[in-house]
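Summary of Year 1 activities. Much of the first year was spent building the evaluation harness for sequence design. The harness presents a backbone, in tokenized form, and records the residue chosen at every position. We chose the following record to illustrate the format because it has been used consistently in internal testing since the harness was completed.
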């Protein structure tokens, strides 16, 4: 049985590997990356890397699983109030915005990697895909509930979700930098956009 100190050391080494892999994947992509490059970036030998992960694909999936799980668990408090779907919608987006601001490299990876990954990595219903699908379902559900209560204008919720996703990505990765967005700014942004969309 390992001691608490050993367990912490193992977790620290694993985190170092994941951080190193994130850097390599960002510059090379999953297909261009190698285990040698990941080991070098993480500051470990290749043998240490293989102690924790059997392949670069396993590391890739671990990053996605952890990241999407973090998002899913973070928005839970915001979506518990089903009486005010617009408030829940904006609060949940604001929480995700805060996470993005704290670690842009990780979240840019989470939002862009699925479009670039080999199809074989989508086989077997990976955990991250379940978190992602449920999260999008929650946001679409909040939009539809909000329309039913008159908090949002009538619109096609699936198309609206794609539009908000694109704007959200651009807002946080292309021009917003590391400055946190306030809850009020997020509300104004979403309300104005949805309002314009609903009347167009």
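For this record, the design step produced the sequence shown next.
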């Amino acid at each position: 049985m390992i001691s608490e100190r050993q367990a912490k050391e193992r977790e620290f080494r694993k985190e170092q590997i994941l951080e190193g892999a994130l850097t390599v994947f960002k510059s090379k992509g999953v297909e261009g990356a190698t285990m040698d490059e990941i080991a070098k970036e993480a500051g470990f030998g290749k043998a240490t890397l293989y102690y924790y992960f059997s392949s670069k694909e396993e590391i890739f999936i671990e990053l996605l699983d952890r990241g999407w799980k973090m998002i899913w668990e973070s928005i839970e408090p915001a979506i518990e109030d089903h009486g005010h779907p617009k408030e829940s919608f904006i609060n949940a987006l604001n929480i995700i915005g805060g996470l993005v601001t704290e670690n842009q490299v990780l979240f840019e990876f989470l939002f862009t990697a699925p479009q670039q990954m080999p199809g074989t990595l989508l086989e077997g219903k990976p955990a991250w895909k379940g978190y992602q699908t449920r999260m999008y379902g929650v946001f679409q559900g909040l939009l539809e509930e909000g329309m039913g209560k008159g908090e949002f204008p009538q619109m096609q919720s699936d198309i609206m979700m794609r539009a908000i996703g694109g704007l959200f990505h651009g807002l946080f990765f292309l021009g917003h930098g590391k400055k946190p967005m306030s809850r009020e700014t997020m509300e104004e942004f979403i309300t104005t956009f949805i309002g314009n969309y609903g009347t167009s």
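The mean pLDDT is 82. Quantitative recovery figures across the full test set are reported in Table 2.
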